[in-house]
Structures are given as structure tokens and as C-alpha cells.
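Q&A log
Question type: sequence-to-structure
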Amino acid sequence: MANVFTPNGDGKNDNFFFPGDLFQDVHCKIYDR
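Response status: OK
Response body:
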């Protein structure tokens, strides 16, 4: 799991995803520290 998520449109770390087929639904909360 990534520890960096920067959705700023530069093409690096713009998406946060869970690879694999283990999840049907994923709910997550992202907090800004």
C-alpha cells in the first residue's frame, strides 16, 4: 500500500488503488495532516 498520495495532476502518485481481486468494495478516508 502506498504511503504517498499526491493528486496534483503531474502523473506521479495521482491515483490510489488496491491491486488484486480480494476486494469487492473499498471504503477509505484520506486525512490531511
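Response note: Residues 14 and 31 are 16 Å apart (CA to CA).
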